Amino acid sequence: MSGWLLVALCVATGAYCLLRMRSGSEQARRAAGSEAVMGFGMAVMALPAAVAAPPAWGWAVFAAVFGGAALRALWLARTDAHHLHHLVGSAAMVYMAVTMAPAGAGGHGGHAMRHGAGGVPLVTGALLAYFAVYVLRAGVRLMPVQPAAGVGMGSTAGAGWGARPELALACRLSMGIGMLAMLLTL
């Protein structure tokens, strides 16, 4: 059941990120596109193996797709620091794909699996710590703040679904929670 809930969360997040691509600046659309790829990729990787076990070569496809996303995020990070988070997320997905690949699926005959089913504990721990801090920071930023006396609150009531900053942050929070869940099961 929890696997299906994670899949549903990731699909919903990816779909919302596609909606966000319709509004905002070019920079915001690029970020939303990266987040949509991450959401849908996480959904596919989180599918319960009993229902849809990927073929042996599927893990190489995941690693290639997210490796390309990591290179794109590295390129875009030159002008927007937010893409550093996308870089870490994409690198984490590559790491999980390599770690979860069945022995013998790669060209090194299980060389990537020599550290056990959970991957390299130090790397897994560092990624868990990063995403735990990210989730806590995003959660705190979503908490409502009381405006000071005499200061009006900005309204987003007329903004479209794609231009709501609190929904974009909730989307990022959801994906961070999803990454935590996936790393914990690694």
Structural account:
65% of the residues lie in helices and 0% in strands. It is globular and about 55 Å long. The chain is mostly helical and 186 residues long. 30% of the residues are buried. The protein has one domain. α1 packs antiparallel against α2 and α2 runs parallel beside α6.
Topology overview:
Layout: H1 2-20, H2 26-46, H3 58-76, H4 82-100, H5 121-142, H6 165-184
Helix pairs in contact: 1-2, 1-6, 2-3, 2-4, 2-6, 3-4, 5-6
In brief, what are we looking at here?
The chain is mostly helical. It has six helices and no strands.
Write the element-wise H/E pattern from the N-terminal end onward: HHHHHH
User: What is the 3D shape?
Assistant: globular
Average per-residue pLDDT, rounded, comes to 81
Radius of gyration: 18 Å
Q: What is the straight-line distance between the termini?
A: 17 Å
The residue fraction in helices comes out at 55-70%
In terms of quaternary structure, the protein is single chain
Low-pLDDT windows of residues: 105-115
Q: How many domains would you count in the coordinates?
A: 1
Query: Helix- and strand-based class?
Result: mainly alpha
User: In DSSP terms, counting alpha (H) and pi (I) runs of 4 or more, how many helices?
Assistant: 6
Quantity of strands, as a count: 0
- Main β-sheet, in a few words? none
